[in-house]
């Protein structure tokens, strides 16, 4: 059975849990990270020298980096409906997954740490405002893409890219600041309500 190391509240762990649900994969999860077992112990660092969750154990195969993990799961366990083999379709999925992990994540980092984590080293009002503005600009890019597809982020069908993107949309909505109206993003979340794992892992059980 697959083993996932990481606390369920982590956005990156939830990518993996949601993917397992979409693929109907049984798994065991162990709590690691802030508030639980330390990821800086020698045992954990031997699995991931970065000291971060999640870590996947698939028998003797160890993998870290959440987007790499979910790509692996879809490739290993009959997930072509999520991660298509056709090169152009796969590239589009990868494009949005990589955008989420780079441009989008970088934009929200300061604002999230300031407004949600209440980090004492993230108290600068100007930097928080700049982070919010950059975050909103990226969400407007996403809104434009969803307006174009009128469905999901990489096209007309739900794909692996929608898992990290939807989790990021949820983080944007749950961070306390004034959010611009993005109708295509709102409609996108409505389309996701019936997905396996969406309520449990993306909306944290909120209908």
TrEMBL record:
**Stored PANTHER family:** DISULFIDE-BOND OXIDOREDUCTASE YFCG (PTHR44051:SF19), GLUTATHIONE S-TRANSFERASE-RELATED (PTHR44051)
Q: Give the InterPro entries listed for this entry.
A: Glutathione-S-Trfase_C-like, Glutathione-S-Trfase_C_sf, Glutathione_S-Trfase, Glutathione_S-Trfase_N, GST_C, Thioredoxin-like_sf
SUPFAM superfamilies per record: GST C-terminal domain-like, Thioredoxin-like
Q: Which residues form the GST C-terminal domain?
A: 86-207
Where is each GST N-terminal domain found? 1-81
**Chain coiled-coil ranges:** none
Gene3D superfamilies reported for this sequence:
1.20.1050.10, Glutaredoxin
How is this protein named in the record? Glutathione S-transferase
Organism expressing this protein natively: Caballeronia jiangsuensis
At the highest ranks, the source species' classification is: Bacteria, Pseudomonadati, Pseudomonadota, Betaproteobacteria, Burkholderiales
């Amino acid at each position: 059975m697959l083993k996932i190391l990481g606390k369920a509240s982590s956005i990156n762990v939830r990518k993996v849990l949601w993917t397992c649900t979409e693929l109907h994969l049984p798994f065991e999860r162990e709590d690691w990270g802030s508030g639980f077992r330390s990821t800086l112990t020698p045992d954990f660092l031997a699995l991931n020298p970065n000291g971060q969750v999640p870590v996947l154990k698939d028998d003797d195969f160890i993998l870290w980096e959440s987007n790499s993990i979910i790509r692996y799961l879809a490739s290993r366990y009959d997930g072509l409906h999520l991660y298509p083999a056709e090169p152009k379709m796969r590239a589009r999925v990868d494009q949005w997954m990589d955008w989420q992990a780079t441009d989008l994540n970088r934009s929200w980092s300061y604002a999230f740490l300031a407004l949600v984590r209440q980090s004492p080293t993230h108290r600068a009002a100007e930097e928080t405002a700049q982070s919010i503005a950059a975050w909103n600009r990226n969400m407007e890019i996403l809104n434009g893409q969803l307006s174009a597809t009128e469905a999901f982020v990489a096209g007309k069908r739900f794909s692996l890219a929608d898992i990290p993107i939807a989790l990021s949309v949820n983080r944007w909505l749950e961070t306390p600041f004034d959010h611009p109206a993005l109708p295509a993003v709102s409609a996108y979340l409505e389309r996701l309500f019936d997905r396996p794992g969406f309520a449990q892992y993306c909306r944290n059980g909120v209908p």
